[in-house]
Amino acid sequence: MRAPYRVGLIGLGNVGGALARRLVDDADRIADTSGRPIVLEAIAVAHRDGRSAPAPLVSAEALLKRPNLDAVIELMGGLEPAHTYIYTALQSGRQVITANKQLIAASGPELCRLGPLRFEASVASAIPIVETLAETMASDRITSLVGILNGTTNSILEAMAQGASYADALVDAQRRGLAEADPSADVDAHDPAAKLAILAMLAFRRRIEPSQIERVGIGGLDQTELLGARQRGFVVKLIAAATVSNGVSIEADVRPRLIPNDAPMARVAGAMNAIAVEAAHAGTLTLQGPGAGPDAAASAVLADLVRAARDMPASAGALLASLADQPAARITPLGLRTPYPAAT
Ligand code: HSE
Fold this sequence. Notes:
The radius of gyration is 20 Å and the shape is globular. The protein has helices at 14-25, 27-34, 60-65, 82-91, 101-114, 130-136, 151-161, 166-175, 184-187, 190-204, 223-231, 294-309, 315-321, and strands spanning 5-10, 38-44, 57-58, 71-74, 95-98, 117-118, 142-148, 214-215, 234-245, 249-260, 272-279, 283-290, 331-332. By secondary structure, the chain is an alpha/beta fold. Helix 4 (82-91) links the parallel strand 4 (71-74) and strand 5. The strands form two sheets. Strands 7, 8, 9, 10, 11, 12 and 13 form a seven-stranded mixed β-sheet that branches. Strands 3-2-1-4-5-6 form a six-stranded parallel β-sheet, with helices on both faces. It folds into two domains: 5-126 and 294-321, 3-Layer(aba) Sandwich (Rossmann fold), CATH 3.40.50; 131-291 and 327-332, Dihydrodipicolinate Reductase, domain 2, CATH 3.30.360.
């Protein structure tokens, strides 16, 4: 077996905690898969007092100065100081793994130019969509992406349609570790817009600025509308969709849409996500699975970590790096047209 692969973790919240547990509990299986033991050398947290963890707790600055780290995993979220930490780690030759969709959507191309940056966990958690688009489907021509990319709002809409109040449904999503630290990122659709921007960059190979994607959140929906839709044979889902025509014109938006009860997308329940990828040669592929929650996100981080330890290429990162000099694409909303009627 090869020498241990030494890792530093920044952030010990829901996802960081789940990852740290997996690294301890599944250490033998992970070593077999990676061809080498993976050793968690240190964990950076803002407040160390009284916390217990399976590795020494240090500051992020101290962690980044450790000379023997092969990889740094950023799971603190937000734009700063996460950007500075990732920049520093890449500049000093480390592999970096992150679940930070806001940061990858906004600055992924520039950061990925600095070194191997992996971000499978940034979109749809356990669903392996990022490397699938960048690696497995790289030789095809992808023409559209339609998906449910936010587990929090999917859970809230489902609970409300069954009679729960918006407030109770949101508290339940927070309790299960689905919601962002500031849940307005979920309910106002910033989170799925960032995820759609990442997927569209990988699928269409165009630079996408997430703020260019029109967003309509779920705040404007009330129970009467959800129940009324149900009586007419529809469920309301927050749908993220993007299409490209002639390889040039991109239409994209995130908004609540009416999904017919018998469509597969209507049965994507709770914190599940689904993504339908339409490809010119392969046809339409739909990937579905847990899209939020600590264990699901930790699984995707671990997949990237094993790829890094095995010296596999960071294909999605290389693809984003190739877009760094492009101007941002002009994006128009899909609006009331395909793929499903708008709910509001
Ligand atoms: N808040 C996000 C969601 C977490 O609910 O989908 C996973 O990215």
